[in-house]
Amino acid sequence: MNRSNQILKDILKSNRLSVTNQRLLIFNILSQNQPLSMNELIKKTNSEIDRVSVYRIIETFISVGIAQKVSLGWKYKIELSDTFQDHHHHLICLACNKTIAIHNQGLESYLNKIANENNFETKNHQIEIQGYCSDCQKS
Amino acid sequence: MNRSNQILKDILKSNRLSVTNQRLLIFNILSQNQPLSMNELIKKTNSEIDRVSVYRIIETFISVGIAQKVSLGWKYKIELSDTFQDHHHHLICLACNKTIAIHNQGLESYLNKIANENNFETKNHQIEIQGYCSDCQKS
DNA sequence: CTATAATTGCAACTGATTTGCAATTAATTA
DNA sequence: TAATTAATTGCAAATCAGTTGCAATTATAG
Ligand SMILES: [Mn+2]
Ligand SMILES: [Mn+2]
Ligand SMILES: [Zn+2]
Ligand SMILES: [Zn+2]
Question: What's the pTM value of the predicted model, to 2 decimals?
């Protein structure tokens, strides 16, 4: 039982949500991976959880701030929320599909400035840079 | 026949693509709107074009640079490419769904810098700020 | 105007996500 | 700890988004 597992349970309990094996499994899968599409996530459960339940668990996780959606490759993927990892964004390689995390405070304040200028109250933002990683650039 | 309609025809012809009524209609719908989801776009055609053809036309438009996908609200929407409008990104209101275009050169160079630092060759990027517009903030 | 090539519409299909409901499991209470 | 209650899950079936094959239609070129 590590630190983040404890935080998970606290969040669940404080929202009157049960701590189930299915929820723990999904949390652990997310802990060990880059952002996953629903299908990738479902595959990683190795049929231990019904697809429908995976969808429902993710919906719940998002609603209480355990997980979050990120826009990647024209659809969303799921990763743990900023409660469990540093806020960041991704470069995604169009050739090998690798994602590279970027942590950049300057970018963040730039976005805040833009929102302010537009009288806009930011809840969230998505940034994705699509292109070719250093490994895939030769051709 | 306005200027951008002429550009459209030139692009089609230079790619050996026919100028059809269906393609003109879709181009005109896109010209008059904010980014549209495929479903919104299909609705706006008022059944004058089969859904399948709308999908195929958009695929063609994207492949020759007439239109482009943008990530908005966890799925992609379609808008005319930067050939027909200035490169920009969007704020999207979670309450009223309005999109607000932002043109910001500083943001663009910031992204380029980040890509460079990561030895990444950028093809494209997506930026979306989700939150509440000035009209929807009172509550 | 005719011939040729490209495009469209239709029917059917696939894969992703949602919904209703009964069976199971977790949390609470005694 | 056992019984009760409430939440969660799995299964079947529905819906929605996007795709494919093919014949009918329309556009382009000669
Ligand atoms: Mn960020
Ligand atoms: Mn941009
Ligand atoms: Zn790569
Ligand atoms: Zn609004």
Answer: 0.89
CATH of the domain at B8: 1.10.10.10
Would you write out chain B's pLDDT as a tens digit for each of its 139 residues?
Answer: 588 999 999 999 999 999 999 999 999 999 999 999 999 999 999 999 999 999 999 999 999 999 999 999 888 999 999 999 999 999 999 888 889 999 999 999 999 999 999 999 999 999 999 999 999 997 6
Residues B7 and B71 in one domain: yes
Please give the tally of structural domains in chain B.
Answer: 2
Last residue of a domain, one of B70, B85, B100: B85
**Which amino acid, B42?**
I
Whether residue A115 lies within 8 A of chain B, CB to CB, comes out as yes
Same domain, B9 and B77: yes
- Same domain membership, residue B138 and residue B99: yes
CA distance A87 to A118: 23
DSSP for A79-116, written as a single string: EE-TTTS---EEEEETTT--EEEE--HHHHHHHHHHHH
- Residues 60-79/A with CB within 7 Å of nucleic chain D are 60
